[in-house]
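If you are new to this repository, start here. Below is one unmodified record pulled from the training split, so you can see the exact layout before writing a loader.
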Amino acid sequence: MTPHPKIDAIVETYLSLADAEAPGLVEGLYLEGSAALDDYHPATSDVDFVAVTSALPPAGTLARIHANLGAHPFEGVYLTWDDLRRDPSGLGPRPRAHEGRLDPQGGVNPVTLHTLARHGVACRGPEPGELDIWADPAALAAWTDDNLDRYWRRLVRQAASLARPWGLAALGGYATVWIVTGVSRLHYTLATGELTSKTGAARHALEAFPERWHRVVREALRLREEDDARPSLGGLLSGLTEHFAVPRRSLYRSPLERRQDVLGFAGQAIEAAHALYTAR
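And here is the target side for that same chain:
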């Protein structure tokens, strides 16, 4: 049994398709991400998985499975049992499913394996606690510190220009949740050595950052709880109109005002997280 009926349905559909296409291929199936961290929201959350096989499977087989699965938000990586015991930085490409497609050159990062080891939900196979899953707190911290610039600072720079796609997206609710909770999650990991969900990260930010930023963090929490901030044109338009609804749903008077705080908070959170890593 998984944390939500929608997850149960997606997992059952996936396993039926996988077993029909390649009987015995998927020997273990584990959930990580929001489904494992008690923060699953059925309208906006993906179902993140790690599928375990005895050997790396043919990409064509996996591609057919995920093509048949269609638009279900089932995203994750294929590993072998031996892979679970190894440092992911040395694994090389591993098949990864994203948005209904199979990327044979995908991979896995330390966050996935640490989440699996500490919080994973078994849908098929032994419980995670019975497995030898790689975990290295120092490697997790180093990857997290690097990701602050390699992904998040670059994204914030893109979002600073309204002429770029992320600049427009930052006016909507999805980017508010993604950016505010994203940088807060990395700050949490460097502060505690642990992993948390988007909601958990926002609650951490309310304690870790000055009151100046509490409004934008509460705005991200509100949007997360309302579960309708999607990365689509419809989601963007909904995020724009909520500022002018009666009564106003947003904590901000305008999307431009909110966007300014989203980017300002992200910049401060990135610097604060780097400082935590430097002080280790």
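Two things worth knowing about this chain: The longest strand covers residues 47-53. The mean pLDDT is 94.
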